[in-house]
Amino acid sequence: MIIDSHAHLDYPQLAADLPAVLARAGEAGVDSVISIGVKLTTADQPRRIAETHDNVWFSVGVHPHEAGNEEDACNVDAFIKAADHPKCVAIGEAGLDYHYDYAPRDRQAESFRAQITAARELDLPVIVHAREADADIANIIEDEMGKGAFSGVLHCFSSGSELARRAIDVGFYVSFSGILTFRNAEVIREVALTAPEDRILVETDAPFLAPVPMRGKPNEPAYTRHTLECLAGLRNCSIEDMASITRSNTLRLFSGMAGS
User: Fold this and answer.
1) Which domains does the chain have, with CATH numbers?
2) What number is the average pLDDT over the span 1-8?
């Protein structure tokens, strides 16, 4: 069975018909989903979904796009309070996005560090969004690791191989989305081929980035299977073995899934 380690089940494209979305996931072999938080002001939405569905867990975070809008984006105590729930398995998605720069870069960095601090204090992994900010992401992760160990994942990996190397070197995981199947994703496929077996995850980032052959449709957890099949092909192993590998890695990183 497959785990979708990153989806936004509270977004309208999925929330409007969530029972059917989760049923289709089950039919495709996807039996568990982590619903990701992007704002503290809407943290109740993924939490409620996780409370309603036994096979859904959630995270609490402020996306870098929202760092300038969320009053508590840099408030460590606010993250800790919001994460006080047995089905909260991570902090984030946090990170840096220099493509759109919707929030000032210094505010993004301050929020990213605050979420790492909360993750460290709670012994939860941090989910990292990285777009066109590879060096700063790596520098912050390494700097914060020097203050005390924490775990994390580069989600929806679309960066360069150097960021992957530096993150893996300090114990991070790398998660691959439908981007892995895109025609122009050679660098990402190379990272997926060479990353250590015990550090790779799969996800959808639904409702975005539907994989081939579902391009043009809203993404959903069922489509995790297509990314998994691509990853299995790259690494020359069976779909069943890749499902087992990524499942084991996901449960190791998001250990709260086993305890709730």
Assistant:
1) 2-259 (3.20.20.140)
2) 97
